Fold:
Amino acid sequence: MPLPPLTGHHEVRRRLADAVRTDRLPQVLLVSGPAGVGKQRLALWLAQLVLCEHPGGDPCGSCRTCHLVDGLAHADLHWFVPLPRPKAGDADKAVEEVALALADAMEERRTKPLYSAPDGMASHSIASVRLLQQRAALTSVEGGRRVFILGDAERLVPQESSQEAANALLKLLEEPPTRSLFVLTAADPRRLLPTIRSRTVPIRLQRLTDAEVRGFLQSQVEPALAPQALDERVALGAGSIGEAVAAGEERGKALHAAEQLIEAALSGSAAVYERALKQTPWSARGEFTAVLDALADTLGEAARSAVGQAPRRPLPPSLARHRDPAALLQALDRVADAREAAAGNVNPQILLAVLGEELAEVL
Ligand SMILES: [Zn+2]
Structure:
């Protein structure tokens, strides 16, 4: 799958394109800005721009090089992302391990271009820095520029434990090989070592506009969002595509839990629905009300479908067969009651058990 399009940041793009055109692009950049606004996507855009066979204000998007970058398959583009810490004790083995993990991570990005924030434990270990150093020492495969992107650079582990690796990285950033470009990205650049930060030229990205986030969700999220869900996601995103997409994942979880409860209620077997209850621990109240909202949404879609309108997203199979709008509306009513009760100080698990019984009765 190709990369999702770069959204917004037109002024920054224009300045970078000017710098490329007049050959004044600094070799080491630090792109900072709120999480999910497209810092690494901008870095990839810049990689495409400097590697494109048809120089201009934007990558042409159609030459061989642009296609290779778009498929994360360009031999001179090296994108480093935080990885689990390697297990190998031996330094060379650890570098091999990191190279494999990075290849896996890139394969995942190719198949799922809308990635979420890295796992809390993932980092750029000393082995990652060694790998970067090794790759930087090689010559260009395609004969042109080489681009190194270090995403979430604040995840660089403190390098004090290995002075050698720290010095190697600093030296690399201080004297980058000819025709190489290094782009570091960080949501919080203050967490970078000052010695590293001082070797970079800062580029600051702002939050996107709501219209930009909306446009992205409309063109990239499948299945398409219903108008109300789209409004919610734009609001939750607050100028960040990453946040808006992640909010959808939370919603995805809530919808899944709601479907499980409906399936259990429809099967009529107490054992099945008890099991469904056990499978979903209601740790946070917000999570619980999200499930109630998802229940209401799913039942509402089923009611639309039962009166002959097309549902706006696929329904759980047992509910899709449900053709009694009156029963579905009654079920919706019960969910609304539970939603009201949830605002008070009730135990979510008990509330959901009662609701499950009620749904089993009316559906
Ligand atoms: Zn091109």
